[in-house]
Specification:
Elements (H helix, E strand, L loop, with lengths): L2 H13 L11 H5 L5 E5 L5 E4 L1 H7 L3 H4 L8 E2 L14 E7 L5 E10 L6 E7 H18 L4 E6 L5 E4 L23 H17 L3 E10 L2 E16 L5 E10 H19 L6 H12 L6 E7 H4 L13 E7 L22 H7 L4 E4 H8 L2 H7 L4 E11 L2 E11 L7 H38 L4 E3 L3 E8 L10 E7 L5 E8 L3 H20 L4 H18 L10 E9 L4 E7 L5 E3 L5 E3 L18 E4 L5 E5 L1 H4 L6 H15 L6 H12 L8 E8 L7 E6 L5 H16 L5 H18 L4 E7 L2 E8 L19 H8 L2 E7 L2 E9 L7
Helix pairs in contact: 7-8, 7-13, 8-13, 13-14, 14-15, 17-18, 19-20, 20-21
């Protein structure tokens, strides 16, 4: 087929679409060439020379193209070449193939010396692009400082390399040499064995680490990363091996930097000593060693300072990695570390140095074969031990084991371990110091809190307290159950703003103040008002900048087992939850006032009736407000849990623990307190009540009432003193008070005498002079009774006196 027929065939194929081009020439002959195609043109552009490779490229024989213009071979001549009088030096065109298709080629031209003829060299464009990219890749690889490229022939002699002659850093190969010329004989034989295997099998080797020593420096070991693949000719016959030798120093340095960065990121995120130690062990495996263990002085676990030089027998294991590994019997988490005999390497460790033991060194140090079997992991060949030293204290030690075919530890790895141990020791010491401070704060908090359970005529109470954990400081939550006169009971729950020791101290001051004011028998709203004034004074005393962090919320409730009523007031505190005897539970509707840090706003008391056997739950927000729920959701969950857990046949303290475990996180971010009170009632037959007329003659009537009632109760031994007390109280009420007036007796483990009148005057105890006609009444009351007092209500005041009942049954 000539050139015109090729054009016609191309046109016919194009008219049929992309799938209609007839191609009868094998594609391998079209696109795979070993040499460049060449042609010679005369000064008019006619072909005068045509090589065999040109025939292979186009399919046209020399007799078909010689003497014809070269333009006839070009399809779609570019615009910049049309009308040109001279051949360009280079370019890209499409040539006709004998079968009618076109070939994208790149050409270069050069004039034949001493002649007007032009030599044209042509190659398929995609081959040229591949060649250029390959050449660029080879140049880039050859320019790398840490990568040596070597081409070895079938005898493994170096044919070509980018290594400079006689390099100062000991390149592994040089042109025209064998590996044994630059490496120690044993190392060269080992590498040549690998290369020979690649040459024989054709299976490449990728990133194989090899320890070698240069002939000029046999004492120093280097790590090379070897990658090799077989070279073949066009017929697939082996012609040699291409090898890439990468100096692992940079790779190792990057790995060390990555490990140091990972230690900085992962170790120290917890303020728990054991978790911090475990994070340190985890980060070392498998990046640094096959196994790792962290041993700490026993005192560090408790937050205390260790001895100056803790050794064997004074330390216990805190962490092992990996946790799933089969460790020897003597290495168990939490177990004490056995003592070791004196040894030079052990003395180096005690001086703060990182030491490396080979298996033989370790066996020699231990001395006891049974102890070796007890301590050494299976297949271990070396161990590195570094002291955990921080702020002048040796907290413990970290050890890393290498087993099996892993490389031994090197000197630079010992330096890395020293850095890792230093950072890990600081993190562990921070956790230790936090543990000490947290335990001290918790201990102070627990000392300031009342007993967990109480048993009073008004109610039995049980409380539970869970301090903040997971790195959070305690926040000064508290509860209280205060016995009041007339068998009443005050219930308190509060939450101080702030954390740590200052919060605990503030809590202690507030609890003391509330107990003092509770003895004055103030109404809940009035008591909170006075506490708010106290908090304002505390804020004023605080250092500048801390005024806004002094404050608290508080709930104060007073339950009277005689009337079975409970008065509740809140200073910004969540409402209590009430579980009734029928099993229904609900949050008590109250009108909360502002937190105690604010003043100027009144507080309001809410009065509710409580049946005997009811359970009133007071709590702090740490119990109901968690990461996954807000306070409203938490209150609903507490209400449901109280109904589910609290049963009459279940101990109240057990119920409290179950509620705390169910409602709080494992490591809560805030303190959580719970106070449960199961109410009781004084039976009606244990009380007596009379109205006192405003007549001095009522004093004798009151004595008659008392005598009759005490006789009925079998308290004849208290008749005389009770008559005197009642006479004085009734006389004072008639003389100084206002009607209406009442007399009430309450019998339980004490006998309570109460006289109430509508006057708000405050009685005062004083010592009367010899010539005074009065002023001795309250003195007699105070002497005859166990204690006495006065409380004010909305409609007057009540003066009361208590006397102990000997061997009285609990009613």
């Amino acid at each position: 087929m000539d050139i015109e027929n090729a054009k016609n065939a191309y046109s016919a194929g194009a008219s049929q679409g992309s799938t209609g081009i007839p191609v009868s020439v094998p594609s391998g002959r079209l696109y795979a060439f070993d040499c460049l195609a060449a042609a010679v043109l005369d000064d008019r552009g006619a072909v005068v020379g045509w090589t065999g490779t040109a025939e292979d490229l186009t399919g046209f024989r020399a007799e078909e193209v010689c003497g014809r213009p070269v333009q006839e071979l070009v399809a779609d001549l570019p615009h910049d070449l049309r009308g040109a009088t001279e051949m360009p030096e280079s370019g890209r065109v499409r040539l006709w193939h004998q079968c009618g298709v076109t070939i994208d080629v790149t050409f270069r031209t050069t004039k034949v010396e001493g002649s007007a003829e032009v030599l044209v060299l042509v190659a398929p464009t995609h081959h040229v692009a591949d060649h250029e990219q390959g050449a660029a890749l080879l140049r880039a690889l050859s320019a790398q400082d840490r990568i040596t490229i070597a081409l070895h022939d079938t005898d493994l002699t170096t044919v070509q390399t980018n290594a400079t002659p006689d390099p100062p850093d000991g390149r592994p190969v040089q042109p025209g040499t064998r590996l044994c010329d630059v490496l120690c004989t044993e190392d060269a034989d080992s590498l040549e064995a690998v290369l020979r295997q690649v040459l024989e099998t054709g299976v490449p080797v990728v990133r194989r680490n090899q320890q070698v020593s240069w002939r000029h420096d046999p004492a120093r070991r280097h790590t090379l990363s070897l990658s090799a693949f077989r070279l073949e000719d066009v017929r697939g016959r082996p012609t040699g091996v291409a090898a890439l030798y990468i100096d692992s120093a940079d790779h190792r340095a990057r790995r060390h930097l990555d490990l140091a960065r990972e230690v900085a990121e992962r170790v120290g995120g917890s303020l728990d000593v054991v978790r911090t130690a475990q994070a340190l062990a985890d980060v070392l495996v498998p990046a640094f060693g096959d196994l790792a263990a962290v041993d700490l002085a026993h005192s560090v676990f408790d937050g205390e300072e260790p001895a100056k030089q803790p050794g064997g027998g004074e330390m216990g294991n805190a962490a092992l990695a990996p946790a799933a590994a089969v460790w020897p019997a003597g290495i168990k988490r939490g177990d004490p570390v056995p003592p070791f005999p004196d040894h030079p390497l052990l003395r180096s460790f005690r001086r703060g140095e990182t030491v490396v033991f080979s298996l033989d060194d370790f066996i020699a140090m231990v001395g006891d074969p049974q102890l070796v079997e007890y301590l050494v992991p299976k297949d271990a060949h070396s161990v590195m031990v570094a002291p955990l030293h921080a702020r002048g204290l040796t907290l413990g030690a970290i050890s890393a084991w290498r087993c099996g075919r892993s490389d031994p530890f090197t000197e630079d790895e010992a330096d890395l371990m020293k850095q890792i141990a230093s950072r890990g020791a600081l993190a562990i010491d921070n956790a230790r110091r936090y543990t000490r401070e947290h335990r001290a704060a918790v201990a102070l908090q627990l000392l300031l809190l009342p007993p967990a359970t109480t048993d009073t005529p008004a109610a039995e109470t049980a409380s539970a307290y869970l301090p903040a954990g997971g790195g959070a400081e305690i926040s000064g939550d508290w509860y209280d159950a205060i016995s009041l006169p007339s068998l009443r009971l005050a219930l308190v729950a509060g939450d101080v703003i702030g954390h740590g020791m200052p919060a605990s101290v503030t809590m202690g001051r507030l609890r003391t103040a509330i107990q003092t004011l509770a003895d004055l028998e103030l109404e809940p709203d009035e008591l909170l008002t006075r506490i708010a004034d106290l908090v304002q004074r505390l804020a004023a005393e605080a250092p500048p900048g801390d005024h806004d962090i002094v404050g608290a919320t508080c709930l104060y409730a007073v339950y009277d087992p005689v009337t079975r009523r409970c008065a509740i007031a809140s200073a910004g505190h969540p409402p209590p939850v009430l579980l009734r005897p029928d099993g229904t539970a609900e949050a008590v509707g109250i009108s909360p006032g502002p937190p105690l840090a604010l003043s100027g706003m009144p507080y309001e008391s809410t009065m509710i009736d409580l049946e005997p056997g009811s359970v009133l739950a007071l709590y702090t927000d740490g119990l109901v407000e968690q990461r996954d729920r807000d306070i409203d959701q938490g209150l609903q969950r507490l209400t449901e849990a109280l109904a589910a857990y609290c049963r009459p046949d279940r101990a109240l303290d057990e119920t409290g623990r179950a509620l705390l475990a169910d409602l709080t996180d494992q490591a809560p971010r805030d303190d959580a307190t719970l106070l449960l009170a199961r109410t009781r009632a004084v039976p009606a037959e244990n009380t007596a009540h009379w109205e006192i007329p405003a007549d001095p003659a009522a004093v004798s009537k009151a004595r008659e009432w008392i005598t009759r009632q005490l006789t009925m109760w079998g308290l004849d031994d208290l008749l005389f003193t009770t008559e005197l007390i009642v006479s004085e109280l009734v006389t004072n009420a008639i003389r100084y008070g206002r009607p209406p007036m009442d007399l009430r007796l309450i019998r339980h483990n004490v006998l309570v005498c109460e006289v109430t009148d509508s006057s708000s005057t405050q009685p005062r105890l004083r010592r009367a002079r010899t010539t005074d006609e009065g002023g001795r009444g309250l003195f007699l009351v105070a002497q005859l009774g166990g204690r006495w007092g006065c409380r004010h209500g909305q409609n007057g005041k009540t003066i009361w006196s208590e006397q102990a009942i000997q061997d009285s049954p609990s009613t």
